[in-house]
Design goal:
- The chain has 415 residues and is an alpha/beta fold.
- The chain is 46% helix and 12% strand.
- The strands form 2 sheets. It has a 6-stranded mixed β-sheet, with helices on both faces. The protein has a 4-stranded antiparallel β-sheet with strand order 4-5-3-6.
- Helix 8 runs antiparallel to helix 10.
- The longest helix is centred in the middle third of the chain and has 21 residues, at 153-173.
- The protein is globular, with a radius of gyration of 23 Å.
């Protein structure tokens, strides 16, 4: 996608000034911002040297090929400014949306927002109405009444989807247009809906059926968070056919899922190696081989739901990367037993989209600490729409203000 156009000459000015100074030094002549580099005799060797200087001064903003694709100071300076997560004097806000998965739910989640924010209330009601034919109970009622059934998978997944859909709609109405989306587990359905790959009615049908079918599987497994690296976990689950890797959240944050006895055997091995483990309070072993019995039933429903390609960069936690394939039935069926490759997908999104901000969308903070560590000191600013049970409309307004919502929001890179 072409870079967003700005009418003022201040955008990219710092980068253009630096380029003029550096090119003048290389070429020994004054450099005009609008004259192509080749007219000054800039060859491939000098271009690579310039790329190295840019990398040293600004970090990984560009690829060597970008110098040929933006062959003037003005063009390359604007491109650098768009991709710079720390532009001098401000710049375009590039916000990525990351949607939290199951486990973030809690009784009364976002009830303060529902009571105080007309926009959030409108969109949560909209999602609840789309879900009602399948849930039989309004997820709004579950939330407002602090109903403990919010922890039953058949209600957890629809309720999380509704909350995340409503939060994302409020942000977009405020002018925060995401440059990319990513979802963890059930959060992928909200991400796909925001990206235009699923309609609200189709997403409501899928998440409701998914939660209900999982609810009625025998609850004979578990999940265990470990500090093991993915390759260590893969070696151990190879000897345990009832256990799989449920999620890879960071370099040493791997969640195992499946048969409890198998998990305990793996736990003994890891703890002998000095690697800590913690069993999670879950109703079922999500993203494990034990989910397989419900896949055919879900697949028969998913095949009747039309899914399309996302209209913005969609980072799949099934594939662990950007995907442009249509998100139709087979994708959502595969997602049930596939590991959540959050770390791979998030790293790819941060590197390729260079967001200035990453917004965690869900009822409590879960993924933000992982995202901050991945981004490092030069990474994007990480914000959570809801910090936890006490979050309200004031907190939401603070996030919108921090995102400088409105005319400074940017379009996706390479969409």
């Amino acid at each position: 996608m072409p870079e967003p156009q700005r009418d003022d000459d201040s955008f990219g000015a710092t980068h253009r000034e630096w380029l003029v100074e550096r090119l003048t030094r290389y070429l020994g002549v004054p450099v005009d911002e609008n004259v192509p580099f080749h007219e000054y005799g800039l060859d491939s060797v000098a271009a690579l040297s310039l790329y190295g200087d840019i990398e040293e001064e600004f970090g990984p903003l560009i690829d060597p090929s970008d110098i040929a694709e933006h062959p003037t100071v003005r063009g390359l300076g604007r491109h650098m400014a768009q991709r710079d997560p720390h532009p001098a004097g401000g710049g375009l806000v590039r916000a990525a949306f990351v949607f939290t998965g199951q486990g973030s739910q809690h009784p009364g989640m976002t009830s303060g927002l529902y009571l105080d924010s007309t926009g959030f209330r409108t969109h949560l009601d909209e999602a609840a109405q789309a879900l009602l034919p399948y849930t039989g109970t309004s997820v709004v009622d579950l939330i407002l009444k602090d109903d403990p059934r919010i922890h039953q998978t058949a209600f957890t997944q629809p309720a999380l989807f509704a909350v995340e859909y409503a939060l994302a709609q409020v942000l977009q109405e405020a002018g925060v247009v995401p440059v990319a989306v990513l979802g963890h587990g059930i959060g992928e359905f909200a991400a796909a809906t925001v990206a235009g790959a699923l309609s609200l009615p189709d997403a409501a049908r899928l998440v409701s059926m998914r939660g209900a079918f999982m609810q009625y599987l025998p609850s004979r497994g578990g999940m265990m968070a470990t500090c093991a690296a993915p390759f260590e976990a893969a070696e151990l689950v190879a000897d345990e056919p009832g256990v799989g890797i449920g999620a890879i959240n960071a370099a040493k944050a791997t969640v195992l899922s499946g048969d409890r006895a198998g998990l305990e055997r793996i736990q003994e091995i890891l703890e002998r190696r000095g690697i800590s483990c913690r069993h999670l309070a879950v109703t079922h072993p999500f993203h494990s081989p034990l989910m397989a019995p419900m896949v055919p039933k879900f697949d028969s429903v998913a095949r009747r739901v039309s899914g399309g390609a996302a209209r913005m960069p969609f980072y799949s936690t099934v594939h662990g990367r950007l995907t442009t394939e249509p998100l139709y039935g087979p994708y959502w069926s595969r997602q049930i037993t596939a590991p959540v490759r959050f770390a791979d997908a998030a790293r790819a999104m941060l590197a390729q989209q260079t967001p200035t901000h990453v917004v965690e969308i869900g009822p409590r903070v879960v993924l933000t600490p992982f995202l901050r560590r991945m981004g490092g000191s030069r990474g994007p600013r990480c914000l959570a729409v809801c910090r936890g049970p006490e979050s309200d409309a004031v907190d939401l307004a603070g996030v919108i203000s921090a995102l400088d919502a409105g005319p400074l929001t940017a379009a996706p890179a390479g969409a």
